[in-house]
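[step 3/7] inverse_fold.run input=structure_tokens len=248
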């Protein structure tokens, strides 16, 4: 299974505003819509973090590279990518007349964090620090974006470090949260003729029987993955458990 950990950075929309406070900006005051500045991505299990940007590749080659990676991926891992990174990239693709990349699954760790835990903040930086996974690369805020867009090479290198740092954090968070992901695409489907049961979340084969689980009118064997800690159950119900006296 090809799992792509990905994070993008974008340039802001530019608009004329009459005031700084509590603005609702009509479309005719928009000077220039935002665009993708750069992205960093890593194939899970690889050491190399890829980086492509408008200043290293040019906008078109960067977008083509992102498309090729998404097209190759079976699954993306991102942080709020369902709402941000993926639709942003899709917009870039359609703007240059590209067709959609092949279908892929998505694991949005932001949604996992929101659904399964109650942290004081759901921001990647905060959650990663709470879990002892490190923190985001520090930078000087909006000034960095101004300098990156203005062509300051030193700042572009900082942006690259920042973007790659996010992918590194994302990868660590994915490993940490793996057993907490309920609807993870089933990795067993990517193993040809598995000789042993395969963990849905991590693809590991060290599974321990863990009682049975009752669902609706049937019982299933329950397992715990010793590799990642995920709770699993057999797909086929335990034979002989059909009980005609159970009503639905
Ligand atoms: Zn597992």
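[step 3/7] decode complete -> sequence:
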């Amino acid at each position: 299974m090809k799992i792509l950990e990905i994070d993008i950075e974008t340039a802001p929309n530019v608009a004329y505003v009459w005031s700084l406070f509590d603005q609702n900006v009509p479309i005719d005051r928009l000077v220039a819509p935002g665009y993708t500045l750069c992205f960093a991505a890593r194939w899970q299990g690889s050491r190399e973090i890829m980086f492509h940007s408008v200043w290293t590749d040019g906008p078109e080659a960067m977008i083509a590279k992102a498309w090729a990676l998404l097209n190759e991926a079976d699954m993306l891992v991102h942080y709020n990518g369902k709402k941000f990174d993926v639709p942003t990239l899709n917009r870039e693709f359609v703007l240059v007349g590209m067709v959609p990349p092949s279908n892929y699954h998505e694991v949005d760790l932001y949604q996992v964090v929101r659904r399964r835990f109650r942290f004081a903040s759901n921001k990647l930086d905060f959650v990663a620090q709470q879990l002892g996974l490190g923190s985001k690369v520090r930078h000087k805020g909006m000034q960095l974006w101004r300098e990156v867009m203005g062509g300051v090479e030193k700042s572009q290198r900082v942006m690259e470090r920042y973007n790659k740092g996010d992918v590194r954090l994302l990868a660590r968070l994915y490993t940490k949260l793996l057993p907490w992901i309920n609807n993870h695409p089933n990795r067993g489907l990517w193993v040809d003729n598995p000789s042993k049961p395969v963990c849905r979340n991590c693809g590991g084969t060290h599974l321990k029987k863990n009682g049975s689980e009752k669902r609706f009118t049937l019982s299933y064997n329950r397992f715990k993955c010793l590799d990642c800690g995920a709770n699993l159950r057999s797909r086929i119900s335990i034979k002989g458990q059909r009980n005609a006296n159970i009503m639905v």
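[step 4/7] annotate
The pocket of zinc ion is lined by residues 199, 201-202, 204, 225, 227-228, 230 (CB under 6 Å).
Residues 3-14+31-180 form a domain with the Nucleotidyltransferase; domain 5 fold (CATH 3.30.420.10).
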